[in-house]
Amino acid sequence: MAFARSRQALAIAGVLGLALGATACGTGNDKKSSGKASSPECAAYEKYQGHDGKKVTIYSSIRDIEADRLAQSWKQFEDCTGIKIDHEGSGEFEAQIGVRVDGGNAPDLAFIPQPGLLKRFADAGKLKPVGADTKALAEQNFTPDWLKYSTVDGKLYGVPLGSNVKSYVWYSPKTFKEKGWTVPTTWDELIALSDKIAASGTKPWCAGIESGDATGWPATDWIEDVMLRTQTPEVYDQWTTHGIPFNDPKVADAVNKAGTILKNEKYVNGGFGGVKSIATTSFQEAGTPITTGKCALHRQASFYANQWPKGTKVAEDGDVFAFYFPAIDPAKGKPVLGAGEFVSAFADRPEVQAVQTYLASGEYVNSRAKIGDWLSANKKLDINNVPNPVDKLSVQILQDPKTVFRFDGSDLMPAAVGAGTFWKGMVDWINGKDTATVLQGIESSWPK
Amino acid sequence: MEFDFAAEQPKFLMLMYGLIAFVVVVGGLLLLLDVVPAWFARRREAQLIAASASGAPMPGRRKQREGLFALFFLLPTLLLLTVGLVVPAIRTTLLSFMDDGSNNWVGLRNYGWMFSEGSIVRVLINTLIWVILVPLVATAFGLIYAVLVDKARLEAIAKSLIFLPMAISFVGATIIWKFVYAYRGDGQEQIGLLNQIVVGLGGEPKQWLLESPLNTFLLIVIMIWIQAGFAMVVLSAAIKAIPADIVEAARLDGVTSWQMFWQITMPGIRPALVVVVVTLSIATLKVFDIVRTATNGNYDTSVIANEMYNQAFRYGKNGQGSALAVFLFVLVIPIVIYQIRNLRQQREG
């Protein structure tokens, strides 16, 4: 009996082994070495050549369709240089990147969306400063404003890749036209418009800060955007670097100013309920009442363009569009809050540097922009290559010389605050806690 | 978007590799477990036959070989336990005495932080509420249900209804319950069952998950909903295992149903009851998915496992995260010891 059984098992194992062998053969030669490298469309990639057959791994938070677009954007680069780019996107990027680095399994490149996280890795000596070629190209293509976010102790540790503009208020051009409302260009006009809409029986603003384990972030964007408007950019920088305490009166002032909209029962939360419903409304659906006329204004970043229900036309003459979140004192310039990700290297092999340099180049950003739903602060980006009207507007704003750009503050702060107590504090604030208590709590959590 | 099979080919290939690797590994292990003992058995058989043929005394089992044999089977388990359990446990304990970046020793500072920081004390209290309520309520509910449906008509169907939630993952169950608790403003169409009932009775819709401490209890309901089925199935089996002659003897003595339950059923199922409560206690101490999915620990609902993950992996505070992990470990140990002693007593008794 035992004998018969073991024979059977042997047979199974044998078949399995054969199957494994057969499939292994089937894939052995699917990488064909094409003679593309010398063809004319590869001329632009000449300076990156000489690494044929090498592999570069990239880790990022970009997934699904966006990841497919990424792969498409560097396909020609791969074909021409023979470098294989192996990209992996993860929804748990911020938590997992640390685990991978500590575990000795760091990717060659990572797209890090938080300068705070980048600094942590740079301080720990895990990141490699960018190579000379990359540095020269980055300084040529980006403003010092952008590069300072990836500079640690005078060394450049990352090159900006994609960007977004957060200082937007979404609205419906159609509804505005019907009701005879005009797009406000100053803070006072914005409040006057809000009052007018509120008087007509509709709650003017809608907001939502629920976002899974990142719940709270849209509210921190609000505070940052208002902070940039009530204070100078210099004070903003002090705030994000803890030069002034988190519960400084200047911060409290900005939070209360945001509260005049966000915690105003007359203004919010169109389509969802009262102030507290902001806490449980997901950021994805927060703006949708605009399409049904239950709400008129929704402050959210440029990437919200992808969240509208299918069939919504996003254009200046369409169903929804965005206007610039107006400054309080226009004489001080045009404060713009934004964010983006930085290409940082954990390895300094020549092929890794080649990819890093390529991602900083004008060729790359234009190649990626043409595919759609993407923009960069890279100066070489040609606005005609950006198909989407909101992205076009963002590029205009980013390239406007009057623009004073500041990076999303919560991404600059240490993770314990920027991805922790600041988020949670804002959730409590929306849920009824007073400004002073909330700010005091965040201040006490700042790592000493 | 159109589904392009050719473009997705690498993914399918990957999937196939995964499946094949799984089958090879599992198949290989099964083969090993089958072949090795069979080989030993045949050898021994041959020895016995040879011995009986030659008329020599039967060769005794040599203790040494048996030890080697045991080692052969224990080795993989020991190895995996060391790598997967012992080493991480020691390392986590060490990390809990170090600072955020695990560079310097800080003594008991992380433990001091745990018991002095208001929000963390709240987390500990929440965990306590969880670990008291879930095992008690889930077990009580399961037990009452098991007794009520025992030998009733359609018992199988009644039992599967309660057991079904067990088949749903914690995250899935929480998403379902989030819909139950969902809120829409007053005057709008409610999409949440609970608020619809409240509105139907003439009340005002409430933001259930925002109100502390009510929200913690509402999350506990989810866990009970999932786990009551487990308690019910185990206890129902135990009730059926009570020897029929005892039950019959009690009946002949004329017990009431009440006496039957307390004098016959309860003592009969005591070991199963202990197993259920212990298992549920440990599962509850570890609860993470429900809280993370429902509220992400906001609105004062966080529990130890959730806070531990946040501290260590999101905020980069390895020391504080490890201290929470160690505390959780310490809480589980007495329950495990109790369970082991209980098992031992049963074996002896």
Please provide a brief summary of the model:
The complex is a heterodimer of chains A (448) and B (349). In chain A, 45% of the residues lie in helices and 12% in strands.
Write the layout of secondary structure elements.
The complex is a heterodimer of chains A (448) and B (349).
Chain A: H1 2-27, E1 55-60, H2 64-73, H3 75-81, E2 84-89, H4 93-102, E3 109-112, H5 115-123, H6 132-141, H7 144-147, E4 151-152, E5 155-156, E6 159-165, E7 168-171, H8 173-179, H9 187-199, H10 217-230, H11 233-240, H12 249-262, H13 277-280, H14 289-292, E8 298-299, E9 321-324, E10 334-345, H15 350-359, H16 362-371, H17 389-399, E11 403-407, H18 409-412, H19 415-430, H20 435-445
Parallel strand pairs in A: 1-2, 1-3, 10-11
Antiparallel strand pairs in A: 3-10, 4-5, 6-10, 7-8, 7-9
Helix pairs in contact in A: 2-16, 6-15, 10-12, 19-20
Chain B: H1 5-54, H2 63-95, H3 109-116, H4 118-149, H5 155-163, H6 170-180, H7 193-200, H8 214-241, H9 244-252, H10 257-285, H11 289-294, H12 304-314, H13 318-348
Helix pairs in contact in B: 2-13, 3-13, 4-8, 4-10, 5-8, 6-8, 8-10, 10-13, 12-13
Written account of the structure:
- The complex is a heterodimer of chains A (448) and B (349).
- Chain A is α/β, with parallel strands linked by helices and 448 residues long.
- Chain A has helices spanning 2-27, 64-73, 75-81, 93-102, 115-123, 132-141, 144-147, 173-179, 187-199, 217-230, 233-240, 249-262, 277-280, 289-292, 350-359, 362-371, 389-399, 409-412, 415-430, 435-445, and strands at residues 55-60, 84-89, 109-112, 151-152, 155-156, 159-165, 168-171, 298-299, 321-324, 334-345, 403-407.
- Chain A has 20 helices and eleven strands.
- In chain A, the strands form three sheets. In chain A, strands 1, 2, 3, 6, 10 and 11 form a six-stranded mixed beta sheet that branches. In chain A, strands 8-7-9 form a three-stranded antiparallel beta sheet.
- In chain A, helix 2 packs across helix 16 and helix 10 (217-230) crosses helix 12 (249-262).
- Residues 1-6 and 12-34 of chain A have low confidence and may be disordered.
- The longest helix of chain B has 50 residues, at 5-54.
- With 349 residues, chain B is mainly alpha-helical.
- Chain B is 76% helix and 0% strand.
- Chain B has 13 helices and no strands.
- Chain B is globular, with a radius of gyration of 28 Å.
- The interface between A and B is large, with 46 and 41 residues.
